[in-house]
Design a protein that fits this description.
Length: 374
């Protein structure tokens, strides 16, 4: 179902100021943008894109039905997310097949509906370092021996394919080349790779880092680590969990200022208990507690977050970043990472009419997806 023609007005952040506009929407796309006079407290931002999300409202992507994925999409849309990548953790091959089948079927019915659009799939940690597993189940980690392993991973019929991997595993450099050849978006994570290996996979086409600082070697003044290498490599980009728990706010600020807002993507890394509040849960076969917004498994490790990209955006604003910068990190940059920026990520004529209307403190007033109000 396509949206009817409608008009929305507000102001688009630009630098330290803003530009009041009227946006005309037709057939789910932005038909025109015209400047208007007058003051308004309505801020218009492009819809948020979450490239790393394991679920919410009690739904785990690894075990979800198509209907449950749509429920997650509906929940995310109310938090300003207009596109997302269901993110699969290491699991049994049969569960990969059922999870991707559910994603495929959900994508088949979401078109035209005012829910966050599933944009493809993100495999996190199939090929990862067992020493850097975090909350993932290392029993399901693999080494890379031939391209058949990659080709055996089920994929939706359409959409983006992204993979977080550790380049230092056996066959890691060959894996990087295979990912590029097979049109995957490679992202370095769950890794303790040495700089020489990182340089090799960078040359092969892996330029992005998953949940920066977490499950990777940090920076030491005599040892670059993955963090130091990424900060010193001009062309790298990274995503980060800006909940103030996974990474100290001051460290977030240091990293973002070092790389620049155009190289940073905000993610949720949310898990099934997101939206349910504090309590005791079972996630990925492990007992997990959520206390004051912090997730924890038995060994004390953090196990994903219970925030949304909207919460991360608010935290970045509290750190002093402008609405334009926050919008770039939550919308345009993830769209560029997924190579979808011709359609998503900014408010321009011809792009999807996916946007968030909020106040200057990022309190959401309404959300439009494909021109339809959520």
């Amino acid at each position: 179902m396509q949206a009817e023609s409608i008009t929305v007005d507000g102001k688009i952040p630009e630098g330290d100021g803003s530009r009041p506009v009227k946006i005309e929407i037709a057939m789910g796309l932005i038909a025109s943008i015209s400047e208007i006079d007058g003051e308004t407290d309505r801020v218009i931002l492009p819809g948020f894109i979450d490239v790393h999300n394991h679920g919410a409202v009690g739904v785990d992507v690894n075990a979800a039905s198509p209907g449950e994925l749509i429920e997650v999409s509906r929940f995310l849309s109310k938090k300003g997310v207009t596109g997302w990548l269901p993110t699969i953790v290491p699991d049994d091959p049969d569960n990969y097949r059922s999870a991707v089948d559910a994603i495929d079927r959900a994508m088949a019915v979401q078109t035209g509906e005012p829910v966050a659009q599933i944009l493809g799939v993100h495999y996190e940690g199939v090929f990862a370092n067992k020493e850097m597993c975090g909350a993932l189940r290392k029993d399901y980690f693999r080494e890379f021996t031939d391209v058949g392993q990659l080709e055996s991973l089920p994929l939706p019929a359409k959409g983006v394919r992204m993979m977080t991997f550790a380049p230092e595993i056996e066959g890691g450099i060959a894996l990087t080349r295979a990912l590029i050849e097979e049109r995957w978006i490679p992202s370095i994570g769950h890794t303790n790779a040495e700089p020489a290996i990182l340089e090799s996979v960078f040359s092969a086409g892996a330029h992005h880092i998953t949940h920066f600082f977490n499950t990777m070697t940090g920076l030491h003044h005599r040892d670059l680590g993955v963090v130091g290498w990424a900060l010193s490599k001009e062309e790298t980009t990274f995503d980060i969990i800006a909940d103030g728990i996974h990474v100290h706010p001051s460290v977030i600020r240091l990293a973002v200022d070092a790389r620049g807002c155009d190289k940073v993507t905000l993610i949720s890394d949310s898990i099934a208990p997101t939206g349910l509040g504090d309590g005791e849960y079972k996630v990925w076969g492990k007992s997990l507690s959520v206390t004051a917004g912090r997730t924890s498994i038995a060994n004390g490790s953090i196990a994903g977050s219970v925030i949304g990209v909207d919460d991360a955006a608010k935290n970045m604003q509290l750190l002093g970043y402008s609405l334009e910068d926050v919008s770039r990190m939550s919308s345009l940059n993830p769209s560029k990472l997924l190579k979808l920026d011709e359609t998503y990520g900014s408010i321009e004529v011809g792009k999807r009419a996916d946007f968030v209307i909020c106040d200057e403190g990022l309190q959401i007033k309404s959300v439009y997806i494909g021109g339809r109000r959520v």
